[in-house]
Design a protein that fits this description.
about 130 residues, 2 domains, two-stranded antiparallel sheet, 6 helices, elongated, binds flavin-adenine dinucleotide
Length: about 130
């Protein structure tokens, strides 16, 4: 799971997808991140071949490119994963969703929309839920 930053390249290698721990900790999705890793690794490998540089220092740019693009989303999902450790809170949200169609649809959209998902982190989100039926 992509719950912490790891070193994903070194002398003569770059790790991609699951091997680089790029699985979303909340949704369990890893296909798109694996594809992005593959594309980025190919671009960096192309440069490495041109410059005949395969050392860790040169390949470090791969880590930087990957984390620049994916880290914010992985970090948010890790926060969401930790929220699931409070069953009472999770049950409260799901029970509300069961009763309210609009809220149910909002939660569904949160799986695709990272900005919307960020609302889960805000106490105001739960506060509003308390008073909405
Ligand atoms: C049950 C399940 C459901 C999932 N559902 C989703 C989903 O709905 N959406 C989503 O985005 N993600 C999902 N994932 C996660 C997703 O499948 C992975 O994150 C993604 O496939 C990772 O791609 P990858 O290329 O890193 O690894 P993989 O797809 O695992 O590819 C690695 C390949 O390397 C091969 N291999 C291994 N060892 C060797 C070797 N020594 N020599 C040669 N080849 C080797 C393997 O056979 C495999 O084909 C799911 C995962 C599981 C297990």
């Amino acid at each position: 799971m992509g719950s912490k930053k790891r070193k994903i390249s070194g002398d003569g290698f770059m790790l991609t997808g699951d091997a680089a721990s790029m699985i979303d900790p909340f949704t369990g999705e890893g296909i798109s991140n694996a594809m992005y890793c593959g594309m980025t690794a190919a671009l960096v490998a192309g440069e490495a071949l041109k410059q005949n540089r395969f050392d860790a220092d040169f390949l470090q740019q791969y880590d930087e490119k990957i984390y620049k693009r994916l880290w914010d989303e992985l970090k948010l999902s890790h926060t969401m994963q930790k929220l699931c450790k409070f069953p009472w809170l999770f049950n409260f949200v799901i029970n509300k969703a069961e009763k309210n169609r609009t809220f149910r649809e909002t939660i569904s959209c949160m799986f695709d929309d990272v900005d919307l998902r960020a609302k889960f982190k805000k106490p105001s989100f739960y506060f509003k839920l308390l008073f909405n039926h």
